[in-house]
Amino acid sequence: MGQVSKQVKQLDRVVIRFAGDSGDGMQLTGDRFTQESAVFGNDLVTLPNFPAEIRAPQGTLPGVSSFQVHFADHDILTAGDAPDVLVAMNPAALKANLGDLPAGATIIVDTHDFTKRNLDKAGYASNPLDALGDANDPLGAFAVHTVDLTGMTVEAVKEHGLSRKDASRAKNMFALGLLSWMYGRPTESTIEFLSRRFAKVPDIRDANITAFRTGWNFGETTETFVVQYEIKPATMPAGTYRNITGNLALSYGLVAGGVRSGLPVLLGSYPITPASDILHELSKHKAFGVTTLQAEDEIAGIGMAIGASFGGALGVTTTSGPGVALKSEAIGLAVMTELPLVVVDVQRGGPSTGLPTKTEQADLLQAMFGRNGEAPVPIVAPQSPGDCFSAAVEAVRIAVTYRTPVMLLSDGYLANGSEPWRIPDVDDLPLIDPAFATEPNHVVEPEKIADDGSVTPAVQDFWPYLRDEETLARPWAVPGTPGLEHRIGGLEKGEGHGNISYDPANHDLMVRTRQAKIDRIADSLPPLEVDDPSGPPGEGRAKVLVIGWGSTYGPIGAGCRRVRKAGYAVAQVHLRHLNPFPKDLGDILRRYDKVLVPEMNLGQLSLLLRGRYLVDAIGYNHVRGLPLKAAELAEAIGNLVGEAEGITVDLSGNLSGGSTPVTSIDQEV
Hints:
Structural class: alpha/beta
Strand content: 15-25%
Distance between the termini: 43 Å
Largest sheet: 7 strands, mixed
Strand order of the largest sheet: 11-10-12-13-15-14-23
Helix content: 25-40%
Number of helices: 20
Shape: globular
């Protein structure tokens, strides 16, 4: 057979989804493809999606695990609304993901597992692959490639002496090799990774490397795939980059917060999806003064963290929504004792156990009000996986400076998703001064000078609830410091001296003072950045503002880009600080005729904005366990722009590029 003629087609972006049984290694496959793309220099965003069960029933729809990666030669904001390419390892993976595919998408199917038993498990009455090319072909809208990935993998690795079952497990590496060829991904990093990962089991190592190389060679030599795609590196600001997940970035941010404050960090935590990776990562950083304790339950974890803060360390606890519910009384204790504490809530679908492995941002009101009494707590929310680093540093700054617990609201999408992250210079990070109390601060008896000139020194003691004039923070004294002996606890404090007080007027004063301290944080926040290309007020500015928080940043940004590309004006602002709100937020909201608030909840930020600013906030709310879709959001934005301006908005024809130019619904340029 002669050399197969191959074409090279240039694309600006592509969305690939790897899907299979939860034992097929789809997360590893997607992660390796992501790392290859990061090494190549593409901008990228990923979306892992996996079952909540440790091992869901094999071959069933609930057992399908997938990993989606969107990579491009330009700046992108989301993991893509729909895949351009689906790699399906079994019938369940095909059926579970088929509804997400646009017409014209490419499907690569491993035919090996399309047995009657597996077809029955997936709910297929007949094999859809048998009807390819027929008049009633259920896959006729797609470009389908049937490949016996498992059979070819077993044959390729036969020389390594593995059982058929072990040999077939390398099929994910065959698929990775094939896709790496199709999209011109560098292969050296994956081969090095496999060599390290399986260094202690040479047969497994060699089999995986062989399968990977065989998949690449199959793409190079087969007549099945005659087109190779090229996506050039993206242009990014100069710097050193790495691919990073939100949980990893958040862990690094907590370490950096400890370094910049000079405080040892103690994490008291109980494992819970999707926050457990933070505990795993921080346990590796003892060299930076980080101590991790896996507690017997959520309450013990936060108790340890509060005790560490009382002892002069930075107390941190990590959890998800169910854990915040259990920690709520202890968070109130930290409010009353006014100790620094960072509470990380990696939000997931609820209520109760809910959707442990799916994303949601429905804990905002819990973070805001989920404690008894008037117990105000600052709230900080990152907007992207890489931004989790900066948000963690900011949470540490607020906690230490204002002597308060801080809620850091990440979510499952940010935690497990990844993107290129520019590694910052440590010297550029803010210095955080714990400003420990070192001497008594209250005069009990003033200095006395007798008639004969002799001096009786003043008698001083330490009052733990005197206030810093600028921040209203109370002094933080390390136990054991001579002369600074004091006691704190959950009962109401007397202003200044901190002894227990049941006086009605004092309680009113302390409640208002604790609230004023949180409000005072707004003085240290930078002005909000409003993305409004249509110009300042009075110069043809937009009439619609889209405001969001947390991980909706990507879909909102992509949706606004699309509306602007079609020639319409829309403004965007995104909130990092949700309590207190930035001081200029009210003025910004009043500039626009209509305000749209997209959220992965039923309207929690909308409720807060309506109550605080009396603005007619319009909610755009989906609670699907998945990120908002940019194309759907763009339609909602366009409709609101049309309503505000009295015109008909048409976004059709506003899509170009990608591997399916006619129907590429997630283009972001």
